[in-house]
Design a protein that fits this description.
Helices cover about 60% and strands about 10% of the residues. With about 600 residues, it is an alpha/beta fold. The chain folds into two domains: about 240 residues, no CATH class; about 220 residues, Rossmann fold, CATH 3.40.50. A nine-stranded mixed β-sheet has the order 4-3-5-2-6-1-7-8-9, with helices on both faces. Strands 10-11 form a two-stranded antiparallel sheet. Bound molecules: guanosine-5'-triphosphate and magnesium ion. Guanosine-5'-triphosphate binds next to helix 4 and helix 9.
C-alpha cells in the first residue's frame, strides 16, 4: 500500500476519527489529508518570470515556448497584464479573464490588444490575467509559466498585478541583465522577495552586442550580489546565474536552428525548469509520508495510553493523570510568559523601526533638497536636464530609504522568529515540543509554498501551520517587505519636470519634493503601523490557539481516566492496535523518511 492509498483507506480514516478527532487536536487531520488528495491531482506549479521592465522576460518565454513572437515584446513598457502559459492543445486561442469575473475567448492574433501597454494602457481594459495554451514539453508536468509586467514599470496598476502573482508562486525565474548588472533597485527588490523564493532560477540576458568577457564579468558580479543577499537571510545557497543570449535563442527557435539553440544557453535553463516539477513532486510526497507517519505514531500513542489504562490499578492511573495534567499546566504557564515577552519585544521593536524610518526619510529628503539646490545654484539648468537630475537623485534617496527599512524589517523577522522559537506547541504526532524543534525538523525545499498549493489554511494544520516558515507574526513582516518594494520601486512617484524654462529655483521643485516625502511617509510609516498591529494580533491568536489546544488536552485526559474500562474495551483497543500495525506494516518504503 502506498501512502496515498493509506490516506484514502477506510480503516485509517476510522482510526483518525476515533483517536484524533478534529476538535480535540488543534489539527484537523482528516481535513488536512483530504486537501492533500484533492490538490495533488489538480496541482499547478506557478513559475513567474520576474525582473525589471525591459529585461527581456517576454522574449525569453517566446524563445522557450513559441514558434513566433506570440508574447508581445518592445523596447518600452510592454507587458501590462499577467499572461499564464499552460499545457494544452488549443494554441490558437487565448482566454481573457477580467477583474469583474467575466471571461472572453479571443484569437491569439489579437493578443497584443490586451497585453501590450500601448493598446491596453495601464490595463484600462481591467484584465486580471490571460491564459494561453501551449504544447511545449516544459509545461507537461503541471508547470505554468507566467509572463509578468516588469517591476519598476511606469504604472502602479501594472505593478499591483505583478505583486499578486508573487503571492502564488512556487518557484520563480529572475531575469537580470549583463549591462547594467544588478542595480540597487533590483537588489532591493530581490532582497524583499527572497524569503518567498524557495527555488529561483537566475537568468542573465546577454545582449547580442555584449561580449563573452562582458557577460562573464557581469555574471561574477551578479552572483556576488545574490550570494550576499542569500547570506543576509541566513542561507548558504550556491547561487548560479545562467547566461542566455535571449536574442539568439528567439532567432534559433523561430528559424528552427538547432545548433544555435544549443549554444545560446537556453537549454540548461529549460532543464532547470523541468526539474522544478520533479523536485516539487518529490517534496510533496515526502511531506505526505512524514505527516502520515506522524499521524500513525499519534494514534499508536493514544491506543497505548488506553491499553495501559485498562490494565493499571486505579491508584496508579490517578497518579499518571496528575502527572500529565501537571505537565500541561506547566507548559501553559511557561508559554504565557514567553508569549508576553514576544509581544513586548515585537511592540518595542516596531516602535523603534517606525521612529527610525521617519528619521531616515527625513534625512534622505533633506539630502535630496541639498543636492538639488547645489546643482541648480551651479548654473542654468533646463527642464529636461533637471528632470533627469531629479530622477537620479530621488532614485538614490528612495533606494537608500528602502535599503535601510528593509534591513530593519528583516532583522526584526529574524529576531522575532528567534523569540518565538522557545514557545511550546503540539506537533502533528501529538508530542509537545518547542517551535525550534519543528523548524529544525522541516527541511523541504518547497515548504514556503506548500500551504498555498495544498489549499491548506493554518486553521487546518493548527499551530504548526500558524508558525510555519512564512506563517504567523514573522510572515506578516515578510509580506510587508515585498509590498514595500513594489510601491517604492515604481517611477510613478516621480513627476516629470516638463516645462522648458531658462532657470529654476529650488522653490519650483519644492512641491514635488514635498509630494515625494508625503508619499514615502504614508507608504512606509502607515504600512509599518498597520503591520505592527497585524503582528500583535497574530501573536494573540497564536496564544489563544495554544491555550485552547492545551486546555482541551487536559479535558481529554480527565475523560480518559474517568471511564472504567471493561473486558470489551480491552478487546477493542487490542483490535484497533492490530489494525493499526497492519496498516503500518503494509506501507511501502515506510522506513525512508
Ligand atoms: N539586441 C537584443 N535585444 C533584446 C534582447 N533581449 C530583449 N531584447 C529587446 O529588448 C526589448 C525588451 O524585451 P522584452 O522581452 O519585451 O522585455 P520584457 O522584460 O518583457 O519587458 P516588459 O514587458 O516591458 O517588462 C525588446 O525590444 C527586445 O527585442 C537581446 O538579447 N538582444
Ligand atoms: Mg514583457
Amino acid at each position: 500500500m502506498t501512502y496515498m492509498d493509506l490516506i484514502q483507506d477506510e480503516r485509517f480514516n476510522r482510526l483518525l476519527e476515533k483517536y484524533l478527532k478534529s476538535e480535540n487536536q488543534g489539527i484537523d487531520y482528516k481535513e488536512y489529508f483530504k486537501h492533500f488528495i484533492e490538490n495533488l491531482n489538480k496541482k499547478e506549479i506557478i513559475v513567474p518570470v520576474l525582473g525589471i521592465q525591459g529585461a527581456g522576460k517576454s522574449s525569453f518565454l517566446n524563445s522557450i515556448l513559441m514558434e513566433d513572437n506570440i508574447l508581445p515584446t518592445d523596447v518600452d513598457e510592454t507587458t501590462c497584464v499577467p499572461v499564464e502559459v499552460r499545457y494544452g492543445e488549443n494554441t490558437n486561442e487565448a482566454i481573457i479573464h477580467y477583474l469583474n469575473g467575466k471571461k472572453e475567448n479571443i484569437n491569439i492574433e489579437n493578443l497584443e490588444k490586451y497585453v501590450h501597454n500601448d493598446y491596453n494602457r495601464a490595463n484600462n481594459l481591467q484584465v486580471s490575467k490571460i491564459v494561453l495554451y501551449n504544447k511545449s514539453d516544459v509545461l507537461k508536468d503541471n508547470i505554468v509559466l507566467v509572463d509578468l509586467p516588469g517591476v519598476g514599470s511606469l504604472t502602479p496598476e501594472n505593478q499591483r498585478t505583478t505583486l499578486e502573482y508573487v503571492n502564488k508562486l512556487v518557484a520563480g525565474i529572475f531575469m537580470i541583465r549583463t549591462n547594467p548588472p544588478i542595480t540597487r533597485t533590483e537588489k532591493n527588490f530581490i532582497n524583499a522577495l527572497w524569503p518567498k523564493l524557495s527555488n529561483t532560477i537566475f537568468v542573465q540576458n546577454k545582449w547580442n552586442d555584449e561580449s563573452d568577457d562582458d557577460a562573464d564579468e557581469a555574471k561574477e558580479h551578479n552572483e556576488g550580489v545574490l550570494s550576499s543577499i542569500s547570506y543576509a537571510h541566513n542561507e548558504e545557497k550556491q547561487i548560479n546565474v545562467n547566461i542566455v543570449n535571449v536574442y539568439e535563442a528567439v532567432k534559433a527557435k523561430f528559424t528552427k536552428d538547432v545548433e544555435l539553440y544549443e549554444n545560446c544557453g537556453i537549454v540548461n535553463v529549460i532543464d532547470e525548469i523541468k526539474n522544478i516539477s520533479k523536485e516539487y513532486n518529490r517534496d510533496l510526497i515526502n511531506t505526505l509520508n512524514q505527516r502520515v507517519n506522524e499521524a500513525l505514531k499519534n494514534i499508536n500513542d493514544r491506543i497505548n495510553t488506553y491499553k495501559s489504562l485498562t490494565l493499571n490499578e486505579n491508584e496508579q492511573n490517578d497518579l499518571e493523570k496528575e502527572e500529565k495534567i501537571k505537565e500541561i499546566k506547566m507548559i501553559l504557564s511557561e508559554n504565557k510568559k514567553k508569549i508576553r515577552n514576544c509581544r513586548a519585544y515585537a511592540d518595542d521593536e516596531m516602535e523603534n523601526i517606525i521612529e527610525n524610518s521617519s528619521k531616515i526619510i527625513k534625512e534622505n529628503i533633506e539630502n535630496l533638497r541639498l543636492e538639488l539646490r547645489r546643482i541648480i545654484n551651479k548654473g542654468i539648468v533646463d527642464g529636461h536636464r533637471l528632470s533627469l537630475i531629479y530622477k537620479e537623485t530621488s532614485d538614490k534617496a528612495i533606494n537608500n530609504i528602502m535599503d535601510e527599512v528593509l534591513v530593519s524589517i528583516s532583522e526584526l523577522v529574524k529576531n522575532l522568529n528567534g523569540e518565538l522559537e522557545d514557545i511550546t506547541i503540539k506537533g502533528f504526532d501529538g508530542t509537545y515540543e518547542n517551535i525550534s524543534f519543528f523548524n529544525k525538523k522541516s527541511s523541504i525545499k518547497y515548504e514556503k509554498s506548500l500551504p498555498t498549493v495544498l489549499g491548506v489554511s493554518t486553521g487546518v494544520i493548527g499551530t504548526i501551520g500558524a508558525i510555519g516558515i512564512l506563517g504567523g507574526p514573522a510572515g506578516i513582516l515578510v509580506g510587508m517587505g515585498i509590498s514595500l518594494a513594489f510601491s517604492l520601486i515604481g517611477e510613478h512617484i516621480r513627476t516629470k519636470i516638463v516645462e522648458n524654462r531658462a532657470s529654476y529655483t529650488i522653490r519650483d521643485l519644492e512641491p514635488m519634493i514635498e509630494d515625494l516625502e508625503n508619499y514615502l511617509k504614508s507608504e512606509i510609516i502607515d504600512d509599518l503601523r498597520a503591520k505592527g498591529k497585524d503582528v500583535d494580533d497574530s501573536i494573540k491568536e497564536l496564544k489563544n490557539k495554544l491555550e485552547k489546544t492545551f486546555k482541551e488536552d487536559m479535558e481529554i485526559i480527565e475523560k480518559q481516566y474517568e471511564v472504567t474500562y471493561n473486558e470489551g474495551h480491552i478487546l477493542e483497543f487490542e483490535e484497533d492496535s492490530k489494525i493499526l500495525n497492519g496498516l503500518i506494516n503494509g506501507l511501502e518504503g515506510q522506513k525512508e523518511k
